[in-house]
Amino acid sequence: MAAITIKDMSVSYNKGKTFVLDRLNLSIKDGEFCVFLGPSGCGKSTAMYSIAGLLEPYAGQIYFGDTLMTEMDKGKKKTFIPPQERNIAMVFQEYALYPNMTVRENMAFSLKTKKVPKEEIDRLVNEQAEKLELTPLLDRRIAQLSGGQRQRVALGRALVRSPQVFLLDEPLGNLDAKLRDQVRYELKKIQRELNITTVYVTHDQTEAMTMADHIVLLNGGNIMQEGTPNELYDHPANEFVAGFLGTPQINIFDCQVVEKDNGLVLDAGAFTLPVPADTVACLQPYVGGAVHLGIRPADMDLDPNGPITAHVDSIEPLGDAYLIYISLGEKLVVFKYAGEKAPAEEELHLSPNFAKLHLFDPATEARINA
Amino acid sequence: MQSNLTIERSKEAQAAQTVRIKPKWHKVVLHIVYYVVLIVFLVFYMLPFWGAVVSSFKSNTEATTSSPIALPQEWSMEGYSGALEKLKTPLLNSLVVTVFGAAGSVFLGSVCAYALSKWKFRLNNVLFIALVAATYLPFQAILIPLLKTVQSFGLYDNIWGVVMVHSIFGMPMCTTMMRGYYAEVPDALIKQAMIDGNGMWQIYRKIVVPNTKLATITTFVFQCTSIWNEMLFALVLTAQGESAMAPLATTVLQGFVGATGVEINQLMAGSMILALPMLVIYIFMGKYLISGQMSGAVTAS
């Protein structure tokens, strides 16, 4: 088990002309469940492959604990421990189970390579198979397994060797929704029990929110924000983070900051909101200019005296709540209503939760309020 | 109601189709012409083979006097026993050269294909193009230097010299074929095996080869047929003594002039014996061969 430290790592596929990852700095604590989250092509898998040693970065260093694993300087190798010597385990999205071997042989493969005594291999494999309910499948061939079973074998194979770092590349991508929830829960439980430093790559924000101790949200080769799931959700550092986390997506309004009655007011055209006292100071530079206002669908509520008046467009029942699509001027806005019954009126009066407004700079998209 | 409708409609459609298929007279004539032409070609193609088969079962006197395509009046195995007697050594030599030559070229080709398809290194593509170009190299162009080289190794007129040459010259073809197969082995498997603690050659031995057995068999069979039928190297690299090879032995047979002239029945029986191994291989392995060449062709590009 080891912490992972990445210093100034850049990855380029064309010898430094363009960068897939640009001077990445990151530290993952020992035993932490860290999720690399981001849209396709953001560099999250690339970062993981670099940690695994399957890919040589262009520059930068990677440490496991205090041990230097990779050190590159403008494409030149200074230190590079090959993947087979890093004592890592990895689960690929396509599982990559060896088709020529049985489940047992798959799970024993890495231990055999390390020349672990046979009795020890048998003990470890049986123990891990027991935990993942794979015992009846041990002598089957991979072709005879279902998707979920293959997934468990891939996990079992990775866990059987007690690696110092555990890497998972979208391991739930090929599972159906129900199985995914179940495996997600199991995976988190196993990780907590074994306390192995884990890096998990996904583009699914639900997986990230539910499993992670530490989310690293990437976009275009840069870290947008890192922190606990709640930090990212409640205090998104920029508009990208706010939009990426949370379903349905956050509602963003273009607002003018206007001075009114010794205070400030946000004017979105279709409605105006008074600025809460604690945000007035940080909005001072924007007076007379524009800002982006973000309100999450669940951070609004019905209020007969609310400042927002909107026309109901359509209602989607979720069972425990309703998604109400309302039109505000030309904009279609989502409002998540947790009441028992859907409101019958055509016109709704809404009030946002003023403690949970998100304000962003329209030019830099960076967060303005604390 | 709905289903009734569809049934009716399909009946109508069927009727329409029957009408369309109904043969017109000029189409019938065309078909007859097709088949006549095909049968003529077939006879032309099969006649020599037929002649060889029937002649091989005749006695030498009958073979020289009767029509070459007539059935033997008296079935005789004389030709076969005589031919086997003379072909014993060449057949054995050919077998050794074929099996070891094919095995050698498949091994070399497989190693090259693995490196070229699964590992990125400098000049990777240049090497591959050079290998492909080598596949089209006319062997006649390099015969003299090759002969000199083999002689300098002291392997002239030695079947192991022929084995070596076949192993090396078969390699480009094997590489091209196997590269196609290896390209289909998922990269994730290779990466996984690396993470499981294996180096490049361990991955080759434990993962790539066991998962591409069919590729190995196909390429091996392909090499066997081409080496078995190959004459040029055998002609140039061996004297016609102890190390004579089977395909050349027909010329040996031809040289055999008995009291009544050339022993046609033995010559034909010998040809049959020589064709037999490859015939058997094609009958049992033909489908692998075809699928192998196809899949290599499509994925290697």
CATH topology of the largest domain in chain B: MetI-like fold
Sheet-strand content of chain B, in percent, reads under 5%
Taking the alpha carbons of the first and last residues of chain B, their distance comes to: 54 Å
Query: How many H/I helical runs of chain B?
Result: 13
The CATH class of the largest domain in chain A is Alpha Beta
Strand order of the largest sheet of chain A: 7-8-9-3-10-11
In terms of quaternary structure, the protein is heterodimer
The number of helical segments of chain A is 9
CATH domain class name of the largest domain in chain B: Mainly Alpha
Shape of chain B: globular
Radius of gyration of chain B: 27 Å
Number of beta-strand segments of chain B: 2
Name given to the CATH homologous superfamily of the largest domain in chain A? P-loop containing nucleotide triphosphate hydrolases
CATH architecture call of the largest domain in chain A: 3-Layer(aba) Sandwich
SS-based class of chain B: mainly alpha
Mean pLDDT over all positions of chain B:
81
Mean pLDDT figure of chain A: 90
The major pleated sheet of chain B works out as:
2 strands, antiparallel
Helix content of chain A: 10-25%
Unreliable spans of chain B are: 295-301
